[in-house]
Amino acid sequence: MFASNNTQDGPTEPPGTRQFTPTELSQYNGADPNLPIYLAIKGTVFDVTKRREMYTPGKGYSIFAGKDASRALGMSSLKPEDCVADYSTLDAGQLNTLNQWEEYYKKRYNIVGTLSE
Fold first, then answer.
1. Which tens digit of pLDDT belongs to each residue from 3-42?
2. How far apart, in Å, are the Cα atoms of 6 and each of 2, 9, 42, 70, 71?
3. Has residue 3 been placed in a domain?
């Protein structure tokens, strides 16, 4: 990773407090160009809209959009079946990877809320 002085690279708003159900979060999957694109990591919901080109359907990271992608991120997996919130089966190395992804997103994207059960 590289450091950047561009303020557009990081969060521009204080963390939001909205609560999302998985069904509500799924609406923000990039399919509707009029809605923002959200994804969750370990229950924290991030707005990744500024990188829409990476998260819309058919793009590289679209699998994560509208979901809690914790397990898949920890496993470095792009398989749909791995894109779930439950990361309890990850080993220590995978948990480390997941934590690194979480920190990466916290430094780059606005937090809009949390995922509820």
1. 334 445 788 888 889 999 999 999 999 999 999 999 999 9
2. 12, 6, 27, 27, 30
3. no
The number of folded domains in the chain is 1
- Give pLDDT, residue 3: 38
Residue 38 in domain: yes
Which residue from 33, 30, 47, 43 is spatially nearest to 110, judged by alpha carbons?
A: 47
The chain-wide mean pLDDT, for the chain, equals 91
Domain assignment present for residue 6? The answer is no
Task: Name the pTM for this structure.
Answer: 0.89
Domain assignment of residue 90, given as a range: 16-115
Cα 19 to Cα 111: distance, rounded to the nearest angstrom = 11
Tokens standing for residue 10: 């990081």
CATH number for the domain spanning 54: value is: 3.10.120.10
CA distances from residue 87 to 31, 35, 71, 117 in whole angstroms, order as listed: 26, 28, 5, 15
What average pLDDT score do residues 91-109 get?
97
Locate tokens 């309890």: which residue?
88
